[in-house]
Amino acid sequence: MPRLKFSGSRLFVLDTNVLMHDPTSIFRFAEHNVYIPMVVLEELDGGKKGLSEVARNVRQVSRYFNELMESATEEEIKRGLPLGNSPYLPKEERTDGRLFFQTTDLATDTLPPGMMTSKVDNTIVNIALALQQDNQEKLVTLVSKDINLRIKSRILGVHSEDYFNDQVLDDIETLYTGQSELPADFWESHDKEMKSWKEEGRTFYQVGGPLVKSWVANQFIHLQDGSNFTAIVRKVEDEQATIELCTDHTSPSHDIWGITARNIEQSFALNLLMDPEIDFVTLQGPAGTGKTLLALAAALEQTIELKRYNEIIVTRVTVPVGEDIGFLPGTEEEKMNPWMGAFTDNLEVLSPSQSNDDWGRQATQDILQKWLKIRSLNFMRGRTFINKFVIIDEAQNLTPKQMKTLITRAGPGTKMICLGNVAQIDTPYLTEASSGLTYVVDRFKNWAFGGHIKLHRGERSRLADFASDNL
What we know:
GO terms for molecular function: ATP binding. Belongs to the PhoH family. InterPro entries: P-loop_NTPase, PhoH, PhoH2-like, PIN_dom. The chain has three domains: 10-161, 5'-nuclease (Rossmann fold, 3-Layer(aba) Sandwich), CATH 3.40.50; 177-245, no CATH class; 256-470, P-loop containing nucleotide triphosphate hydrolases (Rossmann fold), CATH 3.40.50.300. 31% of the residues lie in helices and 18% in strands. The chain is built from 15 helices and 18 strands. It is elongated, with a radius of gyration of 27 Å.
């Protein structure tokens, strides 16, 4: 039986993990064709049960497949299903590519003797190799999130690539930092026709000049000339920007729940955390930069003292660094307690007593029970948070879809804080460029009610700083 010849310039063979990672991946290859081996369908069938994000993605992929072939004949399926017919794609994203399923045995005898064809990965490589031999005028590419499978493919002469469509940026170094240092001659080039005024004790300036075009809403600007000038951009219109002088939280007179900022970046972070007009804040930086401490201090100040929020909600992804400790007994909060050590440690720092006596420990527990609630991500769907201060820790381990699920839980009066370090990702197949934290930083960077700061300088201890720099 003659093997099928494919039209189009390229043919992409998709690994199972690509579909599990992004159900819409079949639509992301423009005018090129997509090929699904039968073993991939078998693996998808085995992963469809459960309430995990992966299981949901698998079921969504199956729905896409069913929608595409619902009215197709057997012959049309063999010729390839047009992907542009999908009702799930916006008009501007319509594709001319076709979706092919494996309908014949594609075996080659070119695999090394040690590679067992009974293994799924080896079978997929074997299929890609056979397709390449039968379509030598086209580039056949195996797309996989599994680096070892890509290595095998290249050794055997099959072109392979990672799945790039989920990556927010090509270079993580270009990710928005939330601040900009001004040149020394800033006022000389930007003070023409400058206006200044005060509203409710806050000082505003309206400035124009060449740098204004590069600013975004809620970006911090500062001068390093000894003047301690720091401001936040409130609005940019045409070539004019409205900026507001920042509160200097490095000063003890502007402490938050007894905490003062130790550097300018922490002061910027506290400005965002304490601003009632900003609904969404992201703090990104290495361990020891104070992300959790600052977020908790701001949460306690605004919930207990200022009464802006009626409760603090804390959650995080339960991805272990080492071996999983297994089943945990108890209620939802009791199960989450082992994952919340960072918050417990910081609450002890923020508690009224710095001693190790029973009263200090009891005060911490009272705060935990009355004001701070620990919730699992597994039970977030369908919830709505009203007048809550929500802290999402370890946000770098969330996928963009999970991040969207969490953020859309926010109701009226709720403020959401995402904390994380994209250099410490523990979720399989998630990278710095495709992390949910990177995703929201990039998408919210010009929103008038959102803010972001990247923290660089560690403030935990001299031991931690030295270890971070040298180990």
